[in-house]
């Protein structure tokens, strides 16, 4: 389906994943922490913002005979006074004196003085001094949360994301994920770091085809792909003896030798000129395989050749526009995506694929009403296309939920049931309905639906992952969930969804090393930078927790499995 590749090795569009894993899988660990908080009914507590300009203060009366420590404290108090007046340079010189006279063994006091001086430097935006002083404070008091958070902010100011993440992770762990500002910061930094790592990784990534099943499913998500129809039709003779070009690609497709397809298409395209019958077909097929393997730039070039050609069958053009639109969606070029869909709708107002695929994009964009209109049109044009029918059910169901229309909700749930009877050989129908029932906490029924989907598609690993998630939600049974997800990987070693989801579960169990390895595998399978960014955020969060827990000697945070 159009948006399928946007969720990596998983053929599920993002909205389905988000649905299944809640905020965790879809948005990243940082948000998940947040979600935990909101779940517990805690409102954002902005006290931390005030903390960030606060300094440690413990006023005392000046005694008659001062010990060095008392003198140091007096200097500190004077410094605090200046700080509160906004006289930061003066404050710094008092803190200097405090540090100078403070006896060496007074670790906690020294830490405070350094921390306070860092606060003054922070006001002056002298980031490297902030970092130095916080580091000194932390040498005296390793778990000094204020110094950690202040240093994190300084690292953020100079865009040193990696160090920033470690500090803010430490704050989160020390505060047991209750420090709202640190949570927000962790989320922000994870995104930056994820983006940076993804941009680096994408440069060296080699194109790689997804699993054979994934490829086949991709093509069947179009009801009117003229090139696919040619590929599977037995009318065009494959030819006798040596075949070459598009016909060779056709043979490769039939025998599932998918890695031969791009070269065969290139042969057709290059040799062509006068005698080629299949140049547009070859361009379309090559572009699809380039898209599937993550060769986006080359895919876009082939798409362009087709769209700009004057002698091209209109159905191929429309199909190409849809494919390019979905690629733009994956690459976060929303405007170009919608433009292509608009062009496709203009060229092929009667082609249901246009509306079916645009409906999915609209759902992803949370434009439920527009999605419903598109699905309606798609089903009107092609009432027997199961995937479109069931996605319409789903969009209608979502809409009924949002608008709290109970009558419609009941109607649509029974429509779903009917769809499972009508399209009893389409796994997607069962999986989507299963997700709806999971959401409605009808777990036993949902599991039956997943089992039925597995009967129809025993090779489909993503269904096993959904079953695993169901075990977690239903029974809190981590062991069984993990088993099912491992089975998914055994079944399809290219199932990105399985690696990612299992990784998230392992983070929750505190198996950080295992989780990092799983995220790495998912990254190797991701096809777009957006997916990679998300996966790197997960991985970076796990690595940072690993580093911090080791360094500070606190156990990894064992969070309740509530995905
Ligand atoms: C916010 O947290 C601070 C200390 O952490 C506490 O004193 C304050 O009452 C909290 N405010 C709210 C609105 O919960
Ligand atoms: C096909 O043609 C393109 C452009 O003319 C060229 O860059 C490419 O190397 C050729 N490929 C083969 C396999 O001949
Ligand atoms: C959902 O319910 C509404 C209102 O009852 C109905 O108009 C719509 O066709 C239903 N959707 C599906 C997919 O049957
Ligand atoms: C697995 O099943 C889901 C749900 O039916 C479907 O969306 C996906 O395309 C299938 N994957 C493969 C590889 O067939």
UniProtKB/TrEMBL annotation:
<keyword id="KW-0496">Mitochondrion</keyword>
<keyword id="KW-0802">TPR repeat</keyword>
<keyword id="KW-0472">Membrane</keyword>
<dbReference type="Pfam" id="PF00515">
    <property type="entry name" value="TPR_1"/>
</dbReference>
<feature type="repeat" description="TPR">
    <location>
        <begin position="427"/>
        <end position="460"/>
    </location>
</feature>
<keyword id="KW-0677">Repeat</keyword>
<feature type="repeat" description="TPR">
    <location>
        <begin position="72"/>
        <end position="105"/>
    </location>
</feature>
<dbReference type="Pfam" id="PF13181">
    <property type="entry name" value="TPR_8"/>
</dbReference>
<protein>
    <recommendedName>
        <fullName>Mitochondrial import receptor subunit TOM70</fullName>
    </recommendedName>
</protein>
<dbReference type="InterPro" id="IPR019734">
    <property type="entry name" value="TPR_rpt"/>
</dbReference>
<keyword id="KW-1000">Mitochondrion outer membrane</keyword>
<feature type="repeat" description="TPR">
    <location>
        <begin position="318"/>
        <end position="351"/>
    </location>
</feature>
<dbReference type="GO" id="GO:0045039">
    <property type="term" value="P:protein insertion into mitochondrial inner membrane"/>
</dbReference>
<keyword id="KW-1133">Transmembrane helix</keyword>
<feature type="repeat" description="TPR">
    <location>
        <begin position="352"/>
        <end position="385"/>
    </location>
</feature>
<feature type="transmembrane region" description="Helical">
    <location>
        <begin position="15"/>
        <end position="34"/>
    </location>
</feature>
<comment type="similarity">
    <text>Belongs to the Tom70 family.</text>
</comment>
<dbReference type="GO" id="GO:0005741">
    <property type="term" value="C:mitochondrial outer membrane"/>
</dbReference>
<dbReference type="InterPro" id="IPR011990">
    <property type="entry name" value="TPR-like_helical_dom_sf"/>
</dbReference>
<dbReference type="GO" id="GO:0030943">
    <property type="term" value="F:mitochondrion targeting sequence binding"/>
</dbReference>
<dbReference type="GO" id="GO:0030150">
    <property type="term" value="P:protein import into mitochondrial matrix"/>
</dbReference>
<dbReference type="GO" id="GO:0008320">
    <property type="term" value="F:protein transmembrane transporter activity"/>
</dbReference>
<keyword id="KW-0812">Transmembrane</keyword>
